[in-house]
Design brief:
With about 550 residues, this protein is an alpha/beta fold. It is about 40% helix and about 10% strand. It contains 18 helices and eleven strands. It has helices at about 5-10, 25-35, 60-70, 85-95, 125-140, 155-170, 185-195, 210-220, 230-240, 245-265, 275-290, 295-300, 325-335, 350-360, 365-385, 430-440, 460-465, 505-530, and strands at about 15-20, 45-50, 75-80, 100-105, 115-120, 145-150, 175-180, 205-210, 270, 490, 540-545. The protein has an eight-stranded parallel barrel with strand order 1-2-3-4-6-7-8-9, surrounded by six helices. Helix 10 (about 245-265) packs across helix 12 (about 295-300). The longest helix is centred in the last third of the chain and has 24 residues, at about 505-530. Residues about 485-490, about 495-515 and about 515-545 have low confidence and may be disordered. The structure holds iron/sulfur cluster (SF4). Iron/sulfur cluster (SF4) binds near residues 386, 391, 392 and 400.
C-alpha cells in the first residue's frame, strides 16, 4: 500500500472513494466493499465518513483499521461535531498510535439528532492548525485534507469559502476536497482562484453519482451544503425512466465529470454516490477514453445557478456598502487604539494604565461582577453577545461568533444554502462579516487565524480578560489542548426555527451528558454568580468537559 501523501506528491491523477460508514450499513458490508475497491490500482484511498449528513455512523477509526487490513488506504474523516478539545486529542492520539495518518479535517454537519444542542468546541481551521501543530511537535506524519465548496452562489458565501480555504492551507492542510456540485465553471473558478495566488495545494473534485432521489433532496439543500439545480433534477427524472432506472446515464455523467476535472488540472477525483467497485472501475476507464474531448464535455457540465455569483463573471449581485455600525466601531478603534476591538495589538501607556485599574477591579468580586454585567448588557442588544469571555468582535467585523450555531470563528462551514444557515432560520453570520470587510476593502484582514476561545472564561468580562491578558485571541492564543481545554454544549435559542429535527440515540446521549453536567454547572454558576443567571436559553452556554 502506497501512502496517500506519496500518491499525491507523484502528481498522477488519483482517485479517492467515499465509504459511508453509516449506522444503517452493516460494517461487514463496508469491509467487503473496501476489499473490492482495494483491487482498483487507481484508487489511492477510501475516505471514511463520520457524521455524514449529520447522522452518527460507525466508529470511523475502527472501520478505518479494518479497511486498511483489506488493502485499502484509509482517509479518516475527523469532524468537530460532538467533540471537545480533549476528545479530539484522544482521537488523534489513537489515529497516531494506529498509524492512520490521513485525516479529512472538517467542521461536520449539525447532528440531525440534536434538536437544540450540539457540541462544537472548535472549527475546522483550528482543527487543521492543531493537527499540523501536533505533527510538528510529535513527528507523527499526519496528512491533512480539508473541504471547500466552490458551489456557493451567494456572493459573500462564495468569497468566504475561498478565503477560508486559504486559512486552512495556511493552518497546515495539504490537500483540498470539494463539496458535491455539477458546475464545471465553478470547478474552474476555484482552480483559477488558487492559481492566481500561487497556491499549489492539490485539489480533488467531487464526482457524485447522482440518483434522481438524491437530486430531489439536494434541490432543497439536503444534505446541508449539497445542491442540485432544477435543470439537473429534470434531466435525472427523464433518465430514470430508462429500463435501467438511469444507471448508465448516471455513470456516464460521472465519467465525464472526471474527464473534465483532469482537463482542468485537478489532482484527482473524489468519488461518492456509489460503492460498487465495478461501476467505479467502469467510470475510471471511461474517463480515460473521454479525456481528449474534455472541453466539449465541459460545456455540458453546467448545472449552476443562473442568477448566481461567479467570481470571474459580471456580478449580478450589488457590491456591499459600508454601514453605520462597523464605520463607528472602526473609527473608535483607530482613534482609541487601546480599546479591545482595535486592530492594533501595540502596547501603550494608556493600555497599561487601564490594565492597572482592571487588576484592582479584578480583586473586588462584587465590582468585577457588575462590570461584567455592564459589558454584557451593553453588547447584547447590539452584537447578540453571549458572554464568551474571549471577545473577537474586532477581528470579525463586529459580528459575534457566538451567534453562529456551530460557534465557528474562522469562517463559514460548507452547510449554507444560498447564504442561509444550515441550522437555524437566519442568514449565515459570515455573509455579514464578508460584506462588511468587502465594503471597507479589508477582506485580507479576515485571513487572520482566530484561535479557539478559552471556554473557562465563559460568563466573565471579556474586556477585563483582554487587558489582563487572560483571553485567547488572534496574536495571543492560549494552548488549551494539552491541558484538555473544556468543551461546550451549544444551545439554540428556542425562538428560532430549527431546520433539523428527529431525536435519536445521539441526542439522548447528549441530553444525558447535559443532565449530568447540569448540577455541576449550577454549583459553578452559583459560586461565580454569573453564568446562566439570566435564564434565557441563548445565554445558557455551558461547560461540558
Ligand atoms: S464577548 Fe464573546 S459572545 Fe460577547 S460579543 Fe464578544 S465574541 Fe461575542
Amino acid at each position: 500500500m502506497k501512502a496517500l501523501a506519496e500518491r499525491v506528491k507523484s502528481g498522477q491523477f488519483l482517485y479517492m472513494t467515499e465509504l459511508v460508514a453509516s449506522g444503517l450499513k452493516r460494517e461487514a458490508q463496508v469491509l467487503e466493499i473496501a476489499s473490492k475497491l482495494a483491487m482498483i490500482p487507481e484508487i489511492a484511498a477510501g475516505s471514511i465518513t463520520s457524521y455524514a449528513g449529520g447522522q452518527l455512523g460507525q466508529d470511523s477509526i475502527r472501520v478505518g483499521t479494518a479497511v486498511r487490513a483489506r488493502g485499502l488506504v484509509p482517509n479518516v474523516h475527523l469532524t468537530c461535531v460532538g467533540q471537545d478539545r480533549a476528545t479530539i486529542d484522544k482521537t488523534l492520539a489513537q489515529l497516531g498510535a494506529l498509524e492512520m495518518h490521513n485525516i479529512f479535517a472538517i467542521s461536520g454537519d449539525w447532528p440531525k439528532a440534536a434538536v437544540r444542542t450540539a457540541v462544537f468546541d472548535i472549527d475546522s481551521v483550528q482543527l487543521a492548525a492543531h493537527i499540523a501543530d501536533l505533527r510538528a511537535r510529535s513527528g507523527t506524519p499526519f496528512f491533512i485534507s480539508c473541504a471547500v465548496s466552490p458551489f456557493k452562489y451567494q456572493r459573500e458565501d462564495c468569497l468566504y469559502q475561498y478565503l477560508k480555504l486559504e486559512k486552512k492551507i495556511a493552518a497546515g492542510a495539504e490537500m483540498a476536497i470539494t463539496q458535491v456540485g455539477w458546475d464545471a465553471t465553478k470547478f474552474v473558478e476555484l482552480k483559477k482562484y488558487l492559481d492566481e495566488r500561487g497556491i499549489k495545494t492539490p485539489v480533488l473534485g467531487n464526482v457524485y453519482v447522482l440518483s434522481r432521489r438524491a437530486a430531489e433532496r439536494m434541490n432543497t439543500g439536503n444534505p446541508p451544503g449539497c445542491w442540485a439545480s432544477d435543470e439537473l433534477v429534470a434531466i435525472l427524472k427523464k433518465e430514470s425512466e430508462a429500463p435501467d432506472g438511469g444507471l448508465q446515464a448516471r455513470l456516464e455523467r460521472g465519467a465525464r465529470s472526471i474527464a473534465v476535472l483532469k482537463g482542468i488540472g485537478y489532482a484527482g477525483a473524489y468519488i461518492g454516490g456509489t460503492h460498487d467497485a465495478n461501476q467505479i472501475r467502469w467510470m475510471i476507464r471511461r474517463a480515460e477514453e473521454l479525456a481528449p474531448k474534455w472541453e466539449e464535455l465541459y460545456e455540458e457540465l453546467q448545472f449552476g445557478k443562473k442568477d448566481g455569483f461567479y467570481l470571474y463573471k459580471r456580478d449580478p449581485q450589488p457590491k456591499p456598502t459600508r454601514t453605520f455600525l462597523p464605520t463607528v466601531m472602526d473609527a473608535a478603534g483607530t482613534t482609541l487604539p487601546f480599546v479591545p476591538w482595535a486592530k492594533t495589538t501595540k502596547e501603550s501607556s494608556v493600555k497599561r494604565m487601564i490594565a492597572g485599574a482592571f487588576r484592582w477591579l479584578d480583586r473586588h468580586p462584587m465590582l468585577s461582577h457588575w462590570f461584567e454585567r455592564f459589558e454584557f448588557y451593553s453588547k447584547k442588544e447590539v452584537f447578540g453577545c453571549q458572554n464568551c469571555g474571549n471577545c473577537v468582535l474586532g477581528s470579525m467585523e463586529y459580528v459575534c461568533p457566538q451567534t453562529c450555531p456551530k460557534q465557528m470563528r474562522n469562517g463559514p462551514c460548507g452547510g449554507t444554502f444560498h447564504g442561509a444557515c444550515e441550522v437555524i432560520d437566519q442568514e449565515c453570520i459570515w455573509v455579514k462579516v464578508m460584506a462588511r470587510a468587502e465594503a471597507s476593502n479589508t477582506i485580507n484582514q479576515l485571513k487572520l487565524f482566530i484561535p479557539p476561545p478559552d471556554r473557562a472564561l465563559t460568563g466573565t468580562a471579556s474586556w477585563l480578560n483582554f487587558y489582563l491578558g487572560r483571553d485567547s485571541r488572534p496574536g495571543r492564543p492560549k494552548d488549551l489542548w494539552r491541558s484538555g481545554g473544556p468543551g461546550r454544549t451549544v444551545e439554540i435559542d428556542q425562538d428560532v426555527k430549527l431546520q433539523t429535527a428527529g431525536p435519536s440515540a445521539a441526542d439522548q446521549a447528549l441530553a444525558a451528558r447535559q443532565a449530568k453536567a447540569a448540577p455541576a454547572k449550577a454549583g459553578a454558576a452559583g459560586g461565580a454568580g454569573k453564568a446562566g443567571e439570566a435564564g434565557k436559553p441563548a445565554e445558557k452556554m455551558r461547560q461540558a468537559g
